């Protein structure tokens, strides 16, 4: 779950809906300067579906120790922490399922999701918020992800529909970085981030170089990107969210009931150059 604070409560956005928004960004990605992703269908599936495994968990939101919705928020942008607020074993099972439900049908897309998951839990994770016994679980999970990535790479290598360039480690790395970029832009959107940011990695250009894209908020859910990675000069996207009234809740069941009763609405994000 992701949360965006309002005057009277919270907008809640599910992980799958956040990921689908990232997929819309990826679909629009590419212009005379920035390279479009290829093999397109596999890359877009990986980006759009990278959090589909969270659907069941997000259907019933829970609360933190402070009574807030347990969700990714503006305070967590740029770091991956607060593991003390979750059941780590259950969380890792969800992460594993999110990889495998896509990889079983599309190894290319699944590999990108696994790389994304591995990066989150290594390069960005705040291990100080994980208990010692949890670190053992995490290390075992990461070992399994590395092993599974090896299996997926073999399947990709054996796929005759993919070109040698599309199978190359460099191309796959570029697509992983695009997933990270679109995911981060969607996260910034879904928490209405109010400070300057960037899209994490240098991103590939048509001339063989790379460029880092910066993100500047100019209004709530309205961002200026520089350099501009899309073909159109201004883009708007809609994404679903539900509003729950109240800043804190006495129990997870109270929040769950409020979320279930809330009407799904459409929020808008605007991107300009």
Care to describe what's here?
This protein has 273 residues and is α+β, with helices and mostly antiparallel strands. Helices cover 44% and strands 17% of the residues. It is built from 9 helices and 9 strands. The strands form 2 sheets. The protein has a 7-stranded mixed sheet. Strands 4-5 form a two-stranded antiparallel ribbon. A hairpin with a 5-residue loop joins β4 and β5. α1 packs antiparallel against α2, α4 runs antiparallel to α5 and α5 crosses α8. The longest helix has 26 residues. The two termini are 29 Å apart. The relative contact order is 0.18.
Q: Work out the helicity level.
A: 40-55%
Shape: globular
Distance between the termini: 29 Å
Number of continuous helical runs: 9
Q: How does the major sheet shape up?
A: 7 strands, mixed
The whole-angstrom Rg is: 19 Å
Low-confidence stretches: none
How are strands sequenced across the largest beta sheet? 1-2-8-9-7-6-3
Order of helices and strands: EEHHHHHHHHEEEEEEHE
Q: Which structural class do the helices and strands define?
A: alpha+beta
Rounded mean pLDDT is: 94
Strand content: 15-25%
Give the beta-strand count.
9
């Amino acid at each position: 779950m992701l949360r965006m604070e309002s005057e009277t409560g919270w907008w809640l956005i599910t992980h799958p809906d956040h990921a689908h928004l990232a997929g819309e960004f990826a679909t629009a990605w590419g212009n005379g300067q920035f390279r479009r992703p290829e093999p397109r269908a596999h890359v877009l599936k990986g980006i759009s579906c990278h959090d589909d495994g969270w659907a069941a968990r997000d259907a019933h939101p829970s609360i933190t120790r402070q009574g807030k919705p347990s969700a990714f928020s503006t305070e967590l942008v740029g770091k991956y922490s607060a593991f003390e607020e979750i059941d780590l074993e259950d969380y890792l099972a969800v992460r594993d399922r999110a990889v495998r439900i896509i990889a079983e049908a599309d190894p290319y897309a699944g590999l990108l999701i696994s790389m994304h998951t591995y990066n989150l839990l290594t390069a960005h994770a705040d291990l100080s918020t994980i208990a010692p016994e949890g670190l053992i679980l995490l290390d075992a999970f990461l070992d399994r992800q590395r092993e599974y990535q090896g299996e997926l790479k073999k399947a990709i290598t054996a796929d005759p529909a993919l070109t040698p360039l599309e199978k190359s480690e460099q191309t796959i790395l570029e697509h992983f970085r695009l997933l990270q970029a679109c995911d981060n832009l969607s996260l910034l959107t879904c928490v209405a981030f109010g400070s300057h940011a960037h899209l994490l990695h240098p991103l590939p250009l048509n001339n063989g170089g790379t460029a880092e894209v910066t993100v500047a908020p100019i209004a709530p859910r309205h961002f200026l990107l520089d350099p501009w990675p899309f073909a159109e000069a201004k883009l708007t996207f809609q994404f679903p969210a539900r509003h729950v009234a109240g800043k804190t809740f006495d129990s997870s069941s109270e929040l769950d009931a409020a979320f279930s009763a809330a009407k799904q609405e459409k929020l808008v994000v605007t991107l300009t150059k």
